[in-house]
Model the fold of this input.
Amino acid sequence: MQFEGEHLWIGQLGHIFILIAFTASLLASIAYFIASRKNDAEEKLSWIKYARVSFYVQSIAVATVFGCIFYICSHHYLEYLYAYKHTSKELEFKYLLACIWEDQSGSFLLWTIWHCVLGILLIKKTKEWEAPVMTVVSFAQVFLALMIMGVYIFGTKIGNSPFVLTRNEINGPIFGRTDYLSLIKDGVGLNVLLRNYWMVIHPPILFLGFASTIVPFAFAYAGIQSKRFGDWVKPALPYALFSGAVLGVGIMMGGKWAYESLSFGGYWAWDPVENASLVPWLIMIAGLHTMVIFKATGHSLKASYLFAILSFVFVLYSTFLTRTGILGDTSVHAFTEAGRAMNILILSFLTVFTIPSLVLFIINFKNIPVIPKEETTSSREFWMFIGSLVFFLSALFIIAKTSLPVINSVFGTKLAPPEDVEFSYNKVMVLVAIIIGLLSAITQYLKYKSTPFNTTLKKLAIPTLIAAVITALLAVFYPFTYYKQGPGFLGALYVALFASIYSVVANAGYIWTGLHGKLKSAGGSIAHLGFTLMIAGMLVSAGNKEVISTEKFKDFEIPMGIDPLTKQQDVAAENINLIRQVSKKMGPYDVTYLNDSAGHETGKRFYHLLFQRKDPATKKISESFVLSPDVYLMKNNNMSSNPDTKNYLSHDVFTYISYALNPDREKDTTTFKIHEVAEGDTILYSKGFMVLDSVTKNPATNKFHIPLTGPAVTANITISGEENMQYKAAPMILIDSLGINQIDDTVYAQNLYIKFAGITADQKKLKIAVKESDKMIDFVTLKAYIFPYINLVWIGLVVMAIGLIMSMISRAKISSKTGAAILVFVSVALFYMFMLAN
Amino acid sequence: MKRSHIVILVAIAIAIGALIMLSVDFSTYDTVASARQKQGKYVHLIARLDKSIPMDYDPAKNPNYLAFSAKDSLGNVTKVVYHNTKPAELEQSERIVLKGKMQGDVFECSDILLKCPSKYKDDKKALEKTVGEKM
Done:
């Protein structure tokens, strides 16, 4: 059957290029593998040349595949399932990339593109390590190509092709018609939760982080393969630093996204999907520290191998966890299962890299050189190693907890996560924060091999004192309000706060006292400073996070726990109702729901909320701003909520709509009643009366913020309702090129619509139309928080990334000009993304 | 004793400590009947919304009170009370995981996880439905 209007050529082109990418990457890995085993230089080079060409071919093929998908999506070729599932014509252009990332195969494609980029860089830079390193990268490319291949081999479908056709994948009567395309008007479009600028930028950065973990892994393999057991560390270290920076930024971008646009109420929830990306990062950081130790002293080589291997292995394990649907009931991210064949493919990707690499490591374990002399306890390397070990153990702890569904499915148990999931992590991680804070503060001051005790103590005295004073001041003037978990945990929070402040101060001090202001080699100190500043920010913002939308009800008692410290009932009712134009007290603010307005996309509504803070002494308004959280109201009364945040340097006011009525759900049937009144006359209504105070011709301003393009008249009315409440209304008539416009005013608190209906025939009285309706109550339910000092978290992250990049520049011996350019670019981009762009 | 031994011992101690903390912390997946047996104990209840009994949610009166009935795979029904706003897509969900405690005959729920067919749109049935609607 011939279908009308289909563009099949581009899908076929894309499919051919997937096959080319697969074949070329397979050839490249075989050729690189052979090259790595040849001793004869000439023969080796000829294999390498062959492998390079293959790798370049597969890079071009991968780029072409991406181009084809981009073309299909941007042209809305709905005959392709990819375009049908992810795009829609109303979608803004910037979300086109987000549409591509949204798909399972799209994110595999992203991963494989980054491998191409890194691979080309490695070909240019690695010199004698090229063959073994690129064997690993090319081999990973084989698997990633399989993921998007979608070919049937012996009746089993290998991978999911992005070029499948809608009519082949979906059953529907319309696909029996040759003109079915003319019946499909638009695609489903991007999930509303994902319509956010972070969705455009977060996946590429995160996947660059994931992709980059393969480089230290590949170097570790190269070290074993070439039997030059220690030589790989030096060239691999800059890549490990790069990976640490990019993966760290990628993870926290996810956190910033969750904070800004999802209604989690925070940036981190220990969700399995978040954990799965954090674990490789923790191990990578542990690994880069042991690599530094090895370079300086020759110790910790075995640990460097293990961490370099495991960091990548856990990236693969994360892929397995998050994409096979095994997490199921434990994750809000709820990735759906991709099918059994796909699960087996992902599992084989994991095992094919994990088992051989660990076997090689164990076989060669005895051959990896060790220094027989033990590190002394006063040496820098000893404590750096302890720090790495703590990072590694915390990673194991996190992944063990996250793997609960895997444990259940392997052992047939029915264990579920604990009641307070976040606390079950926090109580352990706070100890990690304490140890890491103290170690990163002190260890910088120690010397490799051994350290004279007295001078170090002297140098450390001042930072210790400063940190203790700052912590004490904070404890007195800005104490934590996190009583929920009892005094023990609160105490641990304070110790962790001290440890992180200590590290910030000590590392800042070390740049001057230890390095004498030589910024070029200060990358490590800056990264430590940033990391611990981030930890301090997390402690302060989480420890003092305040829900301001609480409402206590008289008619029921909430069966929640008793606060262990205040001995009071915990407040669980964290949502508050705001009736339109009636202000309510929330924390320090009086909040008024002003009005709502439609967004650019169908179903999107903004709710404008006025926050005002009054000075208690003068009663004047000292602070006033409008927040406009939005909601997508979808069919079936479903909604998706996007928060809005007011950012101050010291705190954020964060709010989102937790429930909104569908505006046209209830039709209003009451009608207007017209009253003829002169100035000073009174109109009665059911709850009170209103007086026409005055009439203003051509007012200078109006409350509707409508530009007056012609003569206008407003009727100024004062309404006196129940309980002596007074309200003002000013309905308006505007005459412009479009004719006579009546702009009605509303007093929601009294359920009143007031219309300036015209003037009586004798021109002596005004016609004021009044409508009362009991269905008019317009309200929203919302949740609001104050997050104090959350900016410290973002600044800390940015500083850490800059520190890591500085280290990378100095370790990779990049020229100071190029290095400076990279640094400026990275700093500006990160600062813009995390602090300014919203 | 060598210092590396100390390190290993400390690591093992931390690991064992972490494991103990882990084991203390587990909750369980339960059915309505087994949750009733464990009065006041925190459990995960896997069920779905029982649409034959009307849901009670009036946000104008109280946005923090939602009551509905949940039916598990064995057909047992329990009343559920959730002191929060009604999650969007509750009515469309195929399966719900309710976290909370059974108090008498009422399941006091502190968190609801929804499994929705449309959430990540990879479900073919949902797509087939949308094709039908777009016609």
Notes: Chain A touches chain B through 66 residues (CB under 8 Å). The radius of gyration of chain A is 32 Å.
